[in-house]
Every structure is written in structure tokens, then in C-alpha cells.
Amino acid sequence: MRTAGIRAPALLLLISSGLLLPGTATAAGTTGTTGTAGTTRAAATTRAAGAASAAGTAGAAGVAEASGTATRTARAATCSAGTGPYQWQLEAYLGRPQDGRQSAADCAAIAAFQRKEGVTPADGYAGLATYRTMLVAQARKNPNAAGGCPATTPARKVACVDLGRQLMWVQNGGKILFGPAAVRTGRLGQETRAGWHKVYWKHKDHFSTLYANAPMPYAQFFSGGQAFHGHPGDLFDGGGSAGCVNLAVKDAQRLWGVLAVGDSVYVWGRKPGT
């Protein structure tokens, strides 16, 4: 029977009366079981595509996780720095077993800390630079937890210099305005003077008149020629200044905008090795 051109209402009437069998081709498409089969196939195709997409996503996640694990394993395997002078302290800070001896896992943990904090080289060696960076990290939450820098009444701005930890920060009451930042203070025989001082002069582009015209960017003087200032060299070279409080240049620049002439400075403790 030819059904091309039959309108939908007439088509339904023919099917209901039994004059048109399901599955007969029409201009409107195949009827009955063929249409149902087509719908079933389409649904199955959609489900298959969804399953494939989910499998692909899970596979990609698995590959990424496996890749990350492989990277961490490779780093641990290739980290071969020996035991450093601050091994025990780094093990304690990083939650490693404290035996004072380097292992591949210790090395990898120290190297990860170095990468996070920008210590170079990030080789897993527990040297002075890494230890000093650890002290800064430990102090971030509350640098004055031990109360070494006295509270003032009424509260006022104070630049606090902790010689023992070689750190400084600025506080006003219980609020930290700057830091903590690593510093390098005076060497043996030229120690940074302890006690209370005040910022009395600021000179952004200062050069030393005593020490071979050495650059002292962002200099803020507080005690008889001793000043906070930027140091373009290595703060962690194991040496010391001629009495000034050296900071990384970027930290000295930030400190410049925090302190003003007349602000208080408090220095206490003793630098290791002096």
C-alpha cells in the first residue's frame, strides 16, 4: 500500500483501523516498531557517548594523578643533597622523622619547601639560607609570640629587631604592619646597638660615607649612623654588616613606606656568633 502524502490524522486513523501495518514507510517517516527501534538506537548511542565521555574524563584524571605521583617520586629519587648543618631543625619544621640524617624523602621535603619559599638552589640541602627562611615562615603568624618586643602604652608604631632570630617587623599594639622579614645585623665587634632608638633621618638613595661609597638604598637611620637599608648581596652569607640592619632591597623598599621620622625602634637579643 502506498502511503506517501497521507496526512497525520488520516495516518493515525488507518493504523488504528488495521489498514496500515506498523513499520510501513510514509512521507512523515517510518511508523510503529521501526520508529521505536530508531528511538531506542538513538538513546543507546547517547548513553554510549556519555559513558565514553565519563571514561575519558576519569582516564584523564587518572593520568594527571599518575603523572603527579611520578613527578614526586622522581624528585625524591633524584634528590641527593647530603646532610646539612640545620638538618634537625628542618626535619622538625617539616614533620619529618628527627634523626639529623638526610634521606631521599627528607631531601624531597626540604626541596619542596625551598621551591615554595623561593630559596635557590632548591636542592634539598638544609643550609643557612633555608634555615633562616624557615625562621621567617615560622614567625609569620605571630612574630612577637614570645613578647620580645615590648608593648607600648599608649600603643604606637615600633620597628622590632630580633637579633637572635635575625628578623624584624613593625607593630602597632597587636597589629603587624610589616614583616616579619629576614635581616643581617652587625658582625662581631660592630654589633647593632640594642635598646630603644628613634628614626631620625631617611635618605632613599644613600651611599655610605664610611665604607667605600657602598650603596644603602632606602636608608632609615635610627642610632648614630646605623640604619635600616637594602642590601643587594646575600643576606645569608654567614657574615654581618658594620652595624646596620640589612634587608633584601624589596623589603627595604616596603619598609620605607611604613616608617616615618620619629617612629620608635627596639633592638634586643644577641646575633649568633657575636
UniProtKB/TrEMBL annotation:
Keywords: Cell shape, Cell wall biogenesis/degradation, Peptidoglycan synthesis, Signal, Transferase
Signal peptide span: 1-27
Residue ranges of domain L,D-TPase catalytic in the record: 157-268
Any single GO BP term: peptidoglycan-protein cross-linking
Top-level taxon of origin: Bacteria
Active site per database record: H229 (proton donor/acceptor), C244 (nucleophile)
A Pfam family per the record: YkuD
Pathway: Cell wall biogenesis; peptidoglycan biosynthesis
A Gene Ontology molecular function term of the record: peptidoglycan L,D-transpeptidase activity
GO cellular component, as recorded: extracellular region
Keyword Signal belongs to the record: yes
InterPro entries: LD-transpeptidase (IPR050979), LD_TPept_cat_dom (IPR005490), Transpep_catalytic_dom (IPR038063)
Identification of the protein by name: L,D-transpeptidase
